[in-house]
Specification:
The chain is mostly helical. Helices cover 79% and strands 0% of the residues. The protein is globular, with a radius of gyration of 15 Å. The protein starts with a helix and ends in a 12-residue tail after the last helix.
């Protein structure tokens, strides 16, 4: 799963035709892949919930592809943000379950 996800995101980054973006994304997704392995190994979700999560991720990927196909940059940013937030939420849920602490990240206020 993590390998396919990395290939998906790498292909999008490669399509930018910008080596700096591609290199940054490749490094970022390799780190995310490592974290994903830990998340998958520690998630205690029942099989049905795991299937639901895979469907949700596939839905995100489909929405990302549709936004790219329509050249809708605002929608693409929104979809990528939602996708990243899903990953963040999963990591935080696993950390809470392992540590017993609320490790919710609080975003700094703008301004």
């Amino acid at each position: 799963i993590t390998e396919a996800n990395t290939r998906f995101h790498a292909r999008i980054a490669r399509a930018s035709n910008n080596e700096h973006i591609y290199d940054f994304c490749a490094r970022l997704h390799q780190q995310a892949r490592r974290v994903s392995h830990v998340v998958y190994s520690l998630e205690a979700a029942p099989e049905g919930e795991q299937k639901d999560m895979r469907k949700k991720i596939q839905g995100h990927h489909g929405a990302i592809i549709r936004a790219i196909s329509k050249s809708d940059n605002a929608e693409l940013v929104a979809q990528l943000t939602d996708h990243a937030q899903l990953f963040h939420d999963r990591v935080m849920r696993v950390l809470r379950s392992v540590t017993g602490f609320d490790v919710t990240f609080v975003r700094p206020k703008k301004g």
